[in-house]
Amino acid sequence: MSRAKRIVICGGGAIGVAIAYFCSRRGARPVVIERHAVAGAASGKSGGFLAFDWCRDSALDQLTRRSFHLHADLAAELGNPWGYRRLATYGGYAIENDPALGPGPRPWLAGRVAITGRLGSPRTTALVEPHAFTMGLMRAAQAHGAELQRGVIAGLVRRPGGAVVGVVLEGGELVEADAVIIAMGPWSTLAAQWLPLPAVFGYKGHSLVFDTGETIPAEALFLEYQEASGEVLTPELFPRGDGTTWICAISTARPVPIDPADVAPDEGAYARLEAMCRNISPALAAAPIRTRQACFRPVTEDGLPLIGRVPGVDGAYVATGHSVWGMLNAPATGEAMAELILDGAARQVDLAPFAAGRLRALDPA
Ligand SMILES: Cc1cc2nc3c(=O)[nH]c(=O)nc-3n(C[C@H](O)[C@H](O)[C@H](O)COP(=O)(O)OP(=O)(O)OC[C@H]3O[C@@H](n4cnc5c(N)ncnc54)[C@H](O)[C@@H]3O)c2cc1C
Predict the structure, then answer these.
(1) Which of 48, 187, 327, 333 is deepest in the core (most CB within 10 A)?
(2) Is any ligand 1 atom within 6 A of the Cβ of residue 305?
């Protein structure tokens, strides 16, 4: 009987744990190595919004449609401890200094917010609580035999011919593997020191989580909001099944600190976000703020993720750069990576558009 493949997954975000889950379900032995905390970066702080067909004119379309279905399946199979729910989604706008016109059709929204149309129905849009989703998938993977190890990936173990056969942790420990996957979100760019990989950048986003109880119905909102200064923000507001409401705005290109624990907000960003929330919603103005948070989403030069083999290096794989759709696309990425590593090719989605070799590799110096 052949021995189960040992697969080292660098990074315990949604992408890493989804790969661990699908590999473990197939009888492999994945080990997730995480520096800070599972779901401790964007995968625990993001919006968790899912859309079936919002990538229809992009190379992401097939991945996204597959993933939307897998989210429903995973919630059903694993008891939905992450509040997966379908909901309608609307778009609109507001101007900070517009006089409030009295309550509109939605009493929880200020009268100055104009809803301009429906962007999605419960058939096409859904939501998960991302921290619970990422933790839940990690636990499900562990139930199938996956391991979680705390450690900082500091290098790779190579055979004389160049094949990757493990990782080196800070402190010197070696962890052997039949396959190594770089899934460290924006920190994946560190792996370009060891592998021919393109740059992965980080875009910072700020968000607040309010305890809104029953005051906000199950409707997601995408707004354009003009501040008194004239600057336009594009807030997204997602009411969750657990009685909280997540809202974000203010994305900035900032250097990513080496240690994910050191991610900090831009000066003044939370105050600006809180002022906006008071302005658009009396329900938010009255609700306690449970969490103020900032995180980086991973982005490549052309906006598409890197999913597949590292070109020219046996045993090395990459899965990162999912930008604004990492929570949505985690399941189909996990499934495809498990197929690629265990069967030699992905069957459900074509990974060709996501090949790392399409972009120029960083100079390892
Ligand atoms: C504000 C905001 C809102 C978003 N909203 C949505 C949304 O509504 N829907 C959606 O689909 N997507 C959304 N996204 C995008 C989504 O959150 C990301 O694409 C996704 O979380 C990326 O997951 P990841 O696993 O690649 O990276 P991460 O979540 O960043 O995980 C990477 C992990 O690697 C670890 N790591 C780093 N360095 C090392 C090292 N040296 N050794 C070991 N481990 C290391 C980190 O600690 C981290 O846990 C949003 C993103 C942001 C910023």
Answers:
(1) 333
(2) no
Cα dihedral angle (38, 41, 45, 48), rounded to 10 degrees? -70
Q: Where are the domains of the chain?
A: 6-79+129-197+302-358, 88-121+202-299
- Find, among 145, 125, 128, the residue nearest to 55 by Cα: 125
User: Ligand 1, from 128, 201, 324: best to mutate by most atoms within 8 Å of Cβ?
Assistant: 324
Q: Is the CB of 156 under 6 A from ligand 1?
A: no
Tell me the C-alpha distance between 345 and 308, whole Å: 9
Which residues have C-beta within 8 Å of that of residue 357, sequence separation ≥ 6? 311
Structure tokens at 330: 């985690």
Expressed in angstroms and rounded, the spacing between residue 67 Cα and the centre of ligand 1 is: 17
What are the pLDDT digits (tens) for 297-313? 999 999 999 999 999 99
Ligand 1 binding pocket includes 223 (Cβ within 6 Å): no
Task: Determine the Cα–Cα distance for residues 220 and 243; give it in Å rounded to an integer.
Answer: 14
Q: Write the pLDDT tens digit of every residue in 198-233.
A: 999 999 999 999 999 999 999 999 999 999 999 999
d(CA 54, CA 64): 8
Tell me the pLDDT tens digit for each residue of 21-40.
Answer: 999 999 999 999 999 999 99
| Fold assignment, 88-121+202-299 | D-Amino Acid Oxidase; Chain A, domain 2 (3.30.9)
Asked if the model's pLDDT at residue 1 lies above 60, the reply is no
346: confidence class by pLDDT, cuts 50, 70, 90: very high
Residue 1 tokens read as 């009987």
